[in-house]
Amino acid sequence: MIRASLFACGLAAWALGAAAQNPLQVIAQQPPGSGSDAMTRAWGECTGRLMGRPVVVQNKPGANGILAINYLKGQPADGSFAMTIGMSQMTITPYVHLQMPYDPLKDFAGVAMIGSSPLVLVVPAGAGVTKLADLEKVAKSQAGGLNFGSPGKGSPAHLLTTALTDAMHWPATHVPFVGESAGLTALMGQQIQAMTLVLNTAAPQVKAGKLVPLAIFAGQRSPVLPDVPTIAEAGGPAVLARPSWIAVVAKKGTPPEVIKALNDATNQCYSDPVYANSMDKMGVTLMRSQPADVLGFAERDIAVWKPLIDKLGLATQ
């Protein structure tokens, strides 16, 4: 028994050492320049520095994360790959397909929570819309209703805005884009009339006078945009006060020693002033966690989003 235990410990140490010798390939499921990509790179820089391990970020945007997830699933579970993943991909995207493209509770090993950030509903400046009641007039004044964008089908932005228009009885048409950046460009060009964005994407454009914020999908106002009402304060349903979050996962079967090392480094980054400041500027609230917390958060939100997806009939082929 003692020899077996020593052998197991030696094997674990070898696996951790072997993984640490190779760069960590971190898959980002949104395009360069997006809020998710910025968080991924900040996390990779900090954890890589603390572990003394090179971190290489690979952007694999498309299909609201499905392309990135399929790429991860095709890689070896040897500790050389990890992926940053949002609430969207963990709790919404698989359930808007009649045939689930992946199972978030079975295909991934949780590594760590990075943080949470509220989403904000915005419209282009100059459109004459400054509150939800104005947006209702727009929605009911044109064929097809309100044209609203999102970073992709099944994103939190898609689901939250759809749930809002349904609850408010507004006619609306969803226009999906590949990532926030493309949708933001279309929004500021007034090719679409509204979009729900993560706070760190919206805030600079709001402060520059290019976008007008109508409501934050959270239970309390954000210090980043303190004058913007919560969704309930703006007259929308309080049930939609659900901030988005981002986490790190690995392929199921990744050595637990590697996962622990990444989790430890993530929690150490929490106390790193450079990292904490960069995340704060992006409107991200950092979260200490254990690996099991990732799937725990997913299970909690699936219990909210899946019934809503079913109610709204959003699942398609």
TrEMBL record:
Belongs to the UPF0065 (bug) family. Gene3D superfamilies: Bordetella uptake gene, domain 1, Periplasmic binding protein-like II. It comes from Comamonas koreensis. Keywords: Signal. The keyword Signal applies. This is Tripartite tricarboxylate transporter substrate binding protein. Residues 1-20 form the signal peptide.
